[in-house]
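Take one protein record:
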Amino acid sequence: MKLSIGIVGLPNVGKSTLFKALTKNDILIANYPFATIDPNVGVVAVPDERLDKLYEMSSPKPASAQGFGRARKIPAVVEFYDIAGLVKGANKGEGLGNQFLNHIKETQAIAEVLRCFPSGEIIHVENSVDPIRDMEIINTELALKDLETIEKAWKKVEGEARTGNKEAQKDLEALKEAKATLEKGELLSSASYSLIRTNKRIAELNLLTAKPQIYLLNGKLEDIPQNLIEKIKSLGADYVIVDLTNPLTDSELNRLIQKAYEILGLISFLTTGEDETRAWTIKQGTKAPQAAGVIHTDFEKKFIRAEVINWQKLLEANSWVAAKQKGAMRLEGKDYVVQDGDVVEIRHG
């Protein structure tokens, strides 16, 4: 599966700078609102030392003089969407709001960039630096757009419910809960209501405030107010502090991606051999046949069993053959839950 994150925030808070640092793409960065008109999409490899070490261990085939035959190393990837700056009234079309909000619908998580650095040289659309105010502007606009989406769905569901359709009646209750939650000023991602979390109709609406959030606090550690951290924690969200006035380090990139994996409940398992070493992203709790299906749909349908070993144990053995001889390789069946860092070989019909 593919991990996708929308980078959002007010104009001039560092979104495009972050995107360029992440993806090394050449995009327009300017000191005025709406420098980014269309969403920039960049694919970033997930840094993974396990992948690198397994690739080396598997004795990759050397390339021919023509460049053919080289073994491949394929990391898991994250798609980052850099989206035009949000302003008050975006839900009604102010600025480039409608475009912005539609693009966020296609992502799995939202990374909100909040400006914490005090520089007076860079214009702030609200004329002052206040990250909590900025957070509230963004989340309010997301909530208002969600309410609009709910209102549109409501009419159809209400009509179906009146006919006695029991599923539609359950959907209507879920919509009522979602609407009441948003009207109280709460995000759906922090709501504990079971109807919202389990209802298929709600999921299909792809509501913006239901997406997990990571806050990227742009500034030095001393620029970050404690009440901002407390506010983020109260929303059940997580944060990463990044000083975008300096080059983004690998460790900062790792922290961001790690947080994204954590909030979405994702892990990686690996496959390795002479032709290819690859990382695969799955949901935590995925069983072996479904993990096999991520590699190829036929593998899930025709799954027999999986050979499994932890990546470190495989490195210690230094080869598949040696691992088998030492009894370190396990045979697992259809009920096995794949763990982060498992190296897997699928046996199928």
